[in-house]
Amino acid sequence: MNNPPYQKLRVTWALKTSFIADALAMPVHWYYQPMEIERAFTGGIQRFEAAPEFHPSSIMSLHSKHKGGRQSAKGLSKGHASKGHAVKEPPQVVGDIILKDKAQFWDTPNVHYHQGMQAGENTLNAHCARVLMRTLASSSQPYDRQAFVNAYIDFMKKSPAAHPDTYAESYHRGFFANLAQGREPENCAMITHDTASIGALVTIAPLVFSARLKGISEADIKIACRAHLALTHPDESLMRVCDSYVQLLCALMEGPDEVSTKALLLEASKGLTSTHLAGLLKRNMPDSQVIGQVFSRACYISDSWPIVLYLAYKYQDDPWQALRVNTNLGGDNVHRGIVLGTLLGLQGDTVATSWFEQLVDHKEIAVEIEALISVANAAKS
Predict the structure, then answer these.
(1) How far is C-alpha 274 from the chain's CA centre?
(2) Is residue 74 included in any domain, yes or no?
């Protein structure tokens, strides 16, 4: 039996809105002071913009090009002579394996993480979600971990690059550092200080939607999503948030009313944050205090997950405002935005209808969304 048409529509809106949210936040990604956003864009971000050349908060030059995390002390990551024998220097992940034409931008302070990206372009992690969408659409079978990781490796190593981005998060660099040392792809995840981050959830929604449309149970989807996360983000606290995210996505696919949706958003925060979200919302604090003082703007899942739920709840009736607020409060607004956009898009098409066709790759993304849904729907019938 086919899925109800409203489910397919909601999935389409959700995925489209997630890519819109990503492109909207891209030019001020990891700006940690909202005043710096105002300085770069008078009135804040209100539409798709290109990435500025100067980034006031960028520490890309401090991030390791050899592995996940920050750079070691000078020279420690290079090969050296020992007892008269030269040690061959390992390949540099950024420059030799991935981002082959972007390594030079990593050495200069205040270069934008998404250097050179144009208005309406999507960041690397959003492109990785597209890799998963294409993988899922290539077969009527359930999620194939091996198929995805192979597609991910091929995509990341392409030259010229198959995406416009300059920066690769820690998890990408750690994965390819381990792969270069000969590890099997399924065992290449590297644990760093920011493994439990919101960027890990960027590829979860396509997997959930595909599986749910195929008639797979929520319990089995949680297992599949944990296995998927383990490829790049092996962290139990993150897995627990992912379980909650899966449960929320499955529930929202059913089209609950406004009151029920708000109850689901509050339920999704329980046990995963030390701050009581319902109580916080009743205090009616300015968003700049909630995001920046109560919760950190950084990528860590302990703060970014409740921020997403807070904004989804507060701005349920105005999703475009939710995405603008998320963008203009800075920090890891791109990855928060993708998850927030997914939740908001499941509830309505207002953002998708108004903004999707302004994305640079909107035609290709629309085809990929349609293919994912069609294959999943055919598999169920």
Answers:
(1) 23
(2) no
